[in-house]
Amino acid sequence: MNRIELTRIPFIKNALKSRYPQLAVFIVMLIGYIFAILAGLIGTPVGSHNFSIVFVWIAWWAILILVAVPFFGRGWCAVCPIPLPGEWLQRGAALSPPDKRPKWLNLRVPKMFRNIWLQNISFLLLALFSSVLLTTPNITGIVLAAMLFAAIGLSTVFERRAFCRYLCPVGGFIGLYSQTAPIELRIKDKQVCVTCEGKPCYNGSSAGYGCPWDVFPGGLTKNTYCGLCMECIRTCPHDNIAVNLRPFSADLAKPSTRMDEAFKAFIMLGSAIIYAGVLLGPWGAFKDAAYNVSSNSWFIYAIVFLAIIFVILPGLFMLGILNKKNTLPLKQRFASLSTALIPLGLMFWVAFSLSFVLTNASYILAALSDPLGLGWNLFGTAHAAWQPMFTSILAPAQTLALVGGLIWSARTAQKAAGEVKVSPIPVIIYCFIATSLMLWLLL
Fold first, then answer.
1. pLDDT tens digit string along 282-335?
2. Cβ neighbours of residue 257 under 8 Å, at least 6 residues apart?
3. Order of all β-strands in the sheet with 183-187
4. What is the rounded (10 degree) CA torsion for 63, 68, 74, 78?
5. What is the distance between the alpha carbons of residues 5 and 244, in angstroms, rounded to a whole number?
6. In angstroms, rounded to a whole number, what is the distance separating the alpha carbons of residues 35 and 12?
7. 3-state secondary structure (DSSP) of residue 29
8. Could you write out the DSSP letters of every residue in 148-203?
9. CA 364 – CA 322 distance, rounded (Å)
10. 20, 40, 135, 247: which could form a disulfide with 52 (CB 3.0–4.6 Å)?
């Protein structure tokens, strides 16, 4: 399949170049986000009847993992409300181009933090406390508010979207898995970018803002760090930037060589396996340890969690790819071959989320009518009975996702192994064992 330029269609091009459709979605999302914070802080403490729990961890999560990331990549980042207030303060404007003089400190993020290690850490922090986060509304409200204020604070100190680019726990894994999506933003003609004066797509102009993600569109080769904000489409004076429809996982043809991205793949893979065991497994002691935060058993759980992600999973992977005859550094082989885990990890999350979401989706109807748990019945669904949905197709759908992910990763492993001149068989065996474990946990 060749790439198809979607921005050749006048309706799509005009919609993306105009700020108003995106602004309308932004405002709706921001209102919903603020309401989720308030619901978490002042609503019912019963998680299954609180808007913040039901709409963030069930409805939003289902849309994100099952639809947005697999098919639109960074599409959620294009409408995410978290950076908005900080960005408006930073620019001193909501729609019109910013003044030449920065409104705040506008510092450059230190070089040592210009990677996704902080995103890896922030995701792990949420993951370690996820059992409480998923069931306790006021904790969810506090976390949502903390993310909003962190984005505002960083926008007043650093240039562009520092929170989104380097700290957001959600942005890290969306960026990783966006490489598999069939949507991309790329330049049309590299030579046009080479000769373009002023590079307004990166630096901004009277037509719009410089790239909020600190990315030069002319150098884009993968989706990981492009937030699809569309500012470059609005500022490019040569109409040289397009949104394309492409084959799935096109970015994975060229493996990454970055260790922060490699470990993100292990973090996401390991977290999906652990979540399947904790939230869906039959082991009561395991559940109690995860839920009893600050207890001795929880500290043991946290140590095991981190050991699985940082020692066991990458250690076994590294043992599989050891080859004394290969002159390429082990670190480079490790980073490149870990690319094969990206499709597998995404399908692990799809399979896990199908169980979690379909089991709890009926709570959405009740929360719609009574979002704060105050006895309202706005739409007549406040007393809708809980029942799992689509139980007859759940196991086949999960099996299809996991087996499909294994095949997808095997093909990716072949390509990655070709780049570093090693056999893909150890990586394929590793993926097979991980998939078998996930099948056992879910089914």
1. 888 888 999 999 899 999 999 999 999 999 999 999 999 987 677 788 899 999
2. 332, 335, 336
3. 4-5, 241-245, 183-187
4. -70
5. 4
6. 31
7. helix
8. HHHHHHHHHHBSS-HHHHHT-HHHHHHHHHGGGSSEEEEES-HHHHHH-SS-HHHH
9. 49
10. 40
Per-residue pLDDT of the chain (443 residues; tens, 9 = 90+): 689 999 999 999 999 999 999 999 999 999 999 999 999 999 999 999 999 999 999 999 999 999 999 999 999 999 999 999 999 999 887 777 766 666 789 999 999 999 999 999 999 999 999 989 999 999 999 999 999 999 999 999 999 999 999 999 999 999 999 999 999 999 999 999 999 999 999 999 888 899 999 999 999 999 999 999 999 999 999 999 999 999 999 999 889 889 999 999 999 999 999 999 998 888 888 889 999 998 999 999 999 999 999 999 999 999 999 876 777 888 999 999 999 999 999 999 999 999 989 999 999 999 999 999 889 999 999 998 889 989 899 999 999 999 999 999 999 999 999 988 889 999 999 999 999 999 999 98
User: C-alpha 240: how far from its chain's center?
Assistant: 28
Bridge partners, 340 (sequence order): none
In order of 8, 218, 230, the CA distances from 11 in angstroms are 9, 24, 15
For the chain, what is the total number of helices (H) and then of strands (E)? 23, 3
For tokens 């981190």, the residue is 306
316 vs 314: CA distance, rounded Å: 6
User: Which letter, b or e, does each residue of 276-291 get, where b requires 16 or more Cβ atoms within 10 Å of its Cβ?
Assistant: bbbbeeeeeebbebbb
pTM of full prediction above 0.85: yes
Q: Strand pairing partners for 249?
A: none
DSSP sequence for 60-97: IHHHIIIIIHHHHGGGTTTT-STTHHHHHHHHT-SSSP
On the CB side of 335, CA atoms within 13 Å amount to: 11
Cβ atoms of 261 and 169 within 8 Å: the answer is no
Domain positions in the chain are 256-442
* Overall residue count recorded for the chain in this entry: 443
Q: Which residues pair with 241 in a beta bridge?
A: 187
CA 44, 46, 52, 54 dihedral sign is negative
SS3 at position 435: helix
Nearest to 30 by CA among 82, 68, 77: 82
Question: Which tokens in the block code for residue 220?
Answer: 């884009």
Structure tokens at 223: 């989706």
| 173-190 confidence digits (pLDDT tens) | 999 999 999 999 999 999
